[in-house]
Design brief:
two-stranded antiparallel sheet, 7 helices, alpha/beta, four-stranded parallel sheet
């Protein structure tokens, strides 16, 4: 009844994460823990504008299966779960849906399923993004290592986990890891057991809780602005 009484102008936010290897220092549930914390912070700031679903934690993680502990959904199953959440709520009048992602491997299937849903429900407002897209400037300005972006169990992710869940970080096992192609390549796909020694990619040894707070706050603020705009309405203005 509480859900039925919720505003139909609210945005249904669907977090997507993963359960996969994150090197020797971070927990398997890292992506799900971070995106859940971001989503809950956004909800806390605008409880009337956000209808938050539980995090879909079984992500598209096939590229991590070379390391034990990773669980992965097939693409069809993964996209079907998101589709089912939306199709369960759409008949009850909810018409604004936003997938908030926390795992790189989910990004492409998220786009496919949300575009498919938009084609089916043209009148609906459909969106998706990853939390780290809203923190790019903060990441670039905050990180000390030469890799100025969030990758995997890297300086940025380690910092976020130190800020959010310090008890789950094995700081004595933080290590810098990752291989680069030579000459450089842009479009070739590699699994993590091909491009890393122990599963992390980046300069995790430089992670700190202080950096994590800066990145977290930037992500929350950026997503909160996006969700507020969708909830309150916007228009399309000519170029």
């Amino acid at each position: 009844m509480d859900v039925d009484g919720f505003s139909r102008e609210a945005v249904v936010v669907i977090p997507t994460g993963s359960l996969e290897q994150h090197g020797p220092a971070l927990p398997l549930f890292t992506d799900s823990l971070i995106v859940t914390a971001v989503a809950e912070a956004v909800e806390a700031g605008a409880p009337a504008e956000v209808l938050l679903t539980p995090t879909l934690w079984l992500g598209a993680s096939g590229h991590h299966l070379g390391f034990c502990g990773t669980l992965s959904a097939g693409f069809d199953s993964y996209m079907g779960a998101i589709e089912s959440v939306v199709e369960s709520l759409f008949p009850h009048g909810f018409h604004k849906f936003y997938v908030l992602n926390g795992h790189g491997g989910n990004k492409e299937p998220n786009g496919v399923v949300m575009r498919t849903l938009k084609a089916r429900h043209v009148e609906a407002t459909i969106g998706h993004s990853s939390y780290y897209e809203f923190a790019k400037t903060a990441v670039e300005n905050t990180l000390e290592g030469p890799l100025k972006e969030l990758r995997h169990a890297c300086e940025a992710e380690s910092s976020l986990m130190m800020h959010l869940h310090p008890g789950l970080v094995r700081t004595d096992k933080l290590r810098d890891d990752g291989l680069l192609t030579e000459p450089p390549l842009v479009g070739v796909i590699h699994h993590f057991d091909e491009s890393t020694e122990q599963g992390s990619y980046g300069y995790a040894t430089l992670g700190t809780a202080a950096k994590g707070k800066i990145i977290f706050d930037a992500a929350v603020q950026g997503i909160a602005n996006e969700i507020a705009t969708i909830a309150n309405g916007y228009f399309l203005r000519g170029l």
